[in-house]
Amino acid sequence: MKAVRLHQFGGPEVLTYEDVPDPQPRKDQVLVRVRACSLNHLDVWVRKGLPGVNLPHILGSDISGEIAEVGEYVGGFKSGQRVLIAPMHFCGTCTKCIAGVQNQCREFTVLGNGVDGGNCELIAVPAANVIPIPDSLDFNQAASVPLVFVTAWHMLVGLAGVRPGQTVLVLGAGSGVGIAAIQIAKMFHCRVITTAGDEAKLAKGRELGADYGINHYQRKISEEVRKITNKAGVDIVVEHVGAATWDESIRSLKAGGTLVTCGATTGPNVSIDLRHLFARQLRLLGSYMGTMGELHEVLGHVFAGRLKPVVDRVFPLSEIRDAHEYLEKSQMFGKVILSV
Ligand SMILES: [Zn+2]
Questions:
Q1: How far is the CA of 78 from the centre of ligand 1 (A)?
Q2: What's phi and psi for 307, nearest 5 deg?
Q3: Which helix (H) or strand (E) holds 198?
Q4: Which pTM value belongs to this model?
Q5: What is the 97 CA–ligand 1 centroid distance (Å)?
Q6: Which end of the chain is more exposed for a tag (fewer CB within 10 A), N or C?
Q7: pLDDT at residue 146 greater than cutoff 90
Q8: How far is the CA of 154 from the centre of ligand 1 (A)?
């Protein structure tokens, strides 16, 4: 099959489109013919080099396609079925997995990070990872959904416990997590404030349901939040930007508010004034992906049309270097897709 592999870490030039042997599925696995795979910032981190990644390596977490072959021990699927693949790898038998918190399993990793992913034509995965998709979603849309929607759902619903009527600040309207979090918070009848670096992205954020947009190059986020909330601050901040926005995110919280973070795109080192943490009784939560239960829950809303995938641009797999350069410029609103 054709695949894009890394033989070394580095810039987009290390992404090599080449012939590799077809995967040989186990009897408890399903072989999927990949049709689309979306990009995440994780692809860039892994490409630049992360510990625990063995070379050569295939990137790609978010996969959609058609079933090519069903293992002998697998029931309930048939060849040709349109599916997406849960973007996670877990053992399935430890106490954490049995308890349904696969993202705390010691073997847990994201597809395309600790194990090979979907920047290729064929992938073999356990049957538990295979999820049929409705005809209403094309392959590009389906591939744009899993990682960012399960992440945003786990942050807002699983961890922060979002409730109707709350005010939620979602950083980065155009990011994958941003487009998911805005829609999920609106589904819970929250008031949503979002941020972006230009007016076009803010307008699109409002189209997704955001009530207010803050241009973070022109305004201080926390000052605008104070104006919008009549000095109260927000109940929840959805953080994934990291160093560039951390102080403003903390300042935007109301007393007893919750900051939940899943990433550090602009850098991982931040500081915190402990007096603010205890005196204002803030909650700071770390979030990593989500559980299989949460993935099925949020996909139910996507399949029913209550939450919408947002695809920015599609590149052929063979032009993956251009796709990575485009992602790193952060000009997109929504997901960048590789079509296979
Ligand atoms: Zn496990």
A1: 27
A2: -120, 135
A3: none
A4: 0.97
A5: 4
A6: N
A7: yes
A8: 18
